[in-house]
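Sample A.
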Amino acid sequence: MAEFSELVKKFDKIRDYMRDFYVYGFKSRTDFTKKSARTYDNEKRRIESYMGEYMKWSSASTRKISFISVDCAKIPVNPLYAAWKSKSFTANDIMLHFYILDILTEKQLPVDELTDMICEKSEVTFDVQTVRNKCSEYVRLGMLTQEKQGKAFVYGISPQNVPISPELLSAVKYFQSACPFGEIGSYILDNENERNSIFSFKHHYIAHTLENNVLFELLAAIRQSRAVIFENQSERTGNTVTVNALPLKIFVSAATGRRFVCMYSLKTRRFTNFRLDYIKTVVLDEIVDFAPELKEKLNNNLSKVWGVSFRGKENSRLEIICMRLRINEETEQYIIERVNREGQGGELTKLEDNIFLFTKEMFDSTDISPWLKTFTGRILALEGTNELVINRFYDDMERMAKMYGIVF
């Protein structure tokens, strides 16, 4: 029987467990059907070793549900970074790591001499190709240098090119929480024996660090104008489809922190947004020559996108929303400022004293519904070209009025 280990070989696997069972927090052991119960128990223990004090439990009927409970405004570092710091390795990996760095500290050596010294010091026989592969890996990571001397390559320790000053450490403490790929800053702080003791964040969406490996590949594709082939899994049906598309822009929700990638589908020839937490794997494909034209077209369309929906080809006309509001101009100037600030280019027109009309054109007016409802109590009338959206709004208002016993 294989021994339990908290180290992981594939991050995709641990990401799914942490998100489905602990971030969303509504699944129990009985909901796990993909593999054996032992697999679930091992993954559960692995995650608990990462999260420690942040693990909580609750009972629902006869089920025990585990979840992560964190006050993001009080934690000095994202606890989910611990998952990125776990990687599977062998005893030989560890041995080569320390011997290579120790031997190359004061001199540069070709791989055959390096191998001989490692074998002599460790009293273990290593193949030259094994040591060469490890050195090549460390060259790619920036830990070693590789220079050609005569017919052979020699390896040495890379110099530290960036001195870590106190000022720089303060910046790292900020960016390790405020920006994507904050786990890099967390690594730096660990290496310097430092902790974030300065910054806290009211709105800190820590769960999205679980998809940073997907985000990294997508950003690389955007920079290189390359298409990607990726697997997208529907949370509703569980079905997985393979998509070939060109990523163009990353969207981030200001309300939830949820991240989307806007892509141009090479099959359907239209813009579509995909949630990053639904994307399983990303593989870079060929360079797309007409990527600049697509980026320009996307930028021209962004003013007509309220959320992330571009809608289908069958509905090519823009939809219009008209919302009539009552706003006290003397005491509620902040409401006028808010509409202008959050209205995404919509036009706010004064009709008469304290009566205003907000008008906005967009591809899909369904996306604007949550924002419209934040003005409940001020809305005098709502009209639009999409009758489904308008009818749903009035139906919701009527149901809410009945709940509170209000004559609507």
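Sample B, a different protein:
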Amino acid sequence: MEKAKGKIRIKDIAIMAGVSAGTVDRVLHQRGIVSEKSRKAVNKVLEEINYSPNLLARSLASKKSYRFICLFPAYQKGEYWESIEKGFRQAAEEFENYKVEVLIEHFNQFDSSSFEEAAKTVMKYEPNAVIMSPVFRQETLEFTHQLSEKNIPFSFIDSMIEDADFIAYYGQHSSLSGYIGGKLLFQSLPPNSRILILHTFRKGSSGAIQTENRKKGFLRYMEENRLNDTTELLSVEIFEDDDERNIKLLQKIFDECQGIQAAITFNSKVHRLAKYFKILSHPEIKLIGYDVLEENITYLKEDIVSYLIAQRPEKQAYCSIRDMSYHLIFNRKINRINYVPIDILIKENIDYYLNFNE
């Protein structure tokens, strides 16, 4: 459907209402099934464009343009952050008509100094808004202080720092997802179990905010269920891009510690552990990790990974751009904290999850 001059398309109404174009079409033509929440959102937008100045026309008539910079970790093809970038780019395309320019800036998530350098680059671009993943707590707080001094609004995705003055957050409830990970892990383990908790080494800073919060939730589950006295946790730090070193490290642990029943990692690299366990002939270990990566799915289907806990990264990124646009361009009220669903995936339901289109 082409947009005539001075008109709003179904696609534009969908963006403003935060629903799909198909949902708008069903409301307009009163057909199909639409939730009451979605119907109210669409009707609210329809009222606005009927009785108020045309929002799209108003934004086009304005001489002001907006530069949003998205700051998040660099990645290789197929990794978690690729989905984040896909969501950002989808939003950039859809909000181009509103004079929103979206720029991407990456940093090394395993080196806090890389984040600091990337933050300096962001400031040189003189952004109107920043959407970022706060991997490093102290470095992020220093950066957000600079943004606040210059009255530059910012939002968080993937994880958040609660005492920062952010506009919106989209991501999991990190602590709760770790709590759920604990519940899944312990439901079939015998008493006096040994469990590996695996972390990835990071240079110049403590662990990533997301993984640390997930771990806190996991430990809270253990404490609430009085598992601390009957469970031995073996904390292991492995290294990015050093498979040989990691395999030797795990082999030593297996040689010295008999009876390891389970393992969990609080990041998206569970496929790496699955590969190591397979090489070391320990596919029986119950293994839990995060995120719907192609390699993670492969090991889930092979029953080497028992559970994946997913968090819809593309939607996080898209909604962050959308809400920042609503806030700056249309002065609309938005929700500050937006928790995405915590999806629990096993080999029996993964294909339905992947093939479903919202």
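Observation for Sample B: Residues 1-6 have pLDDT under 50 and may be disordered.
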